[in-house]
Design goal:
The protein is of the alpha+beta class. The chain contains 9 helices and 6 strands, in the order αβααββααβααββαα. Helix 5 crosses helix 7 (118-126) and helix 5 (89-101) packs across helix 9.
Length: 199
Amino acid sequence: MNNLAQIEALLFVAGDEGITSQALCQITQFDKPAVIALIEQLANKYANDTMSALEVRETDGAYRLVTKPSLGVIVKNFFDAPDNATLSQAQLETLVIVAYKQPVTRVEIDQIRGVQSAGTLQKLMLRQLLVETGRKDEPGRPIMYGTSAMFLDYFGLKSLTELPPLPDFETLDVDDGGTLFANVLESENLEMKEGQKNV
């Protein structure tokens, strides 16, 4: 495997979180000038290839693969399609964790869910239900995620204070999958309706 392919593979598996040049050096054992040169070579390769949908983007010291801005409309159409209009179980699970644990990193989400969440996070970001809230002050400076105003609109909430309480916050577990968030919201809505009947 050539050196450029190694860098490309690492950018791919890093997902939306991205990966720093320092981390690339540690994993590949290449020196920093070589890594930077390879990243630039890969970026130029994508930029000059009209058949490629990808480009390399650097944000706050981390490099990641993203779709080219010119494809924004077609990507939006994907998420607007009827089959993708509703949230999947994986997306609901991730929203539960972010909503109650924010700000939270991808690794922390992965640890709770027990599976890799990079793709799910990216989809929720594209749907504008989640936003980046900053970077955690630890090695690698991972991105921290939080819920957005769109999240509140989607679930009919005025603010995060309206989120129903979880019985055991510190040991938040989503073994129940996407039903957890749906159930707590449904429970709150039922209580509100009952209260209105009794008025």
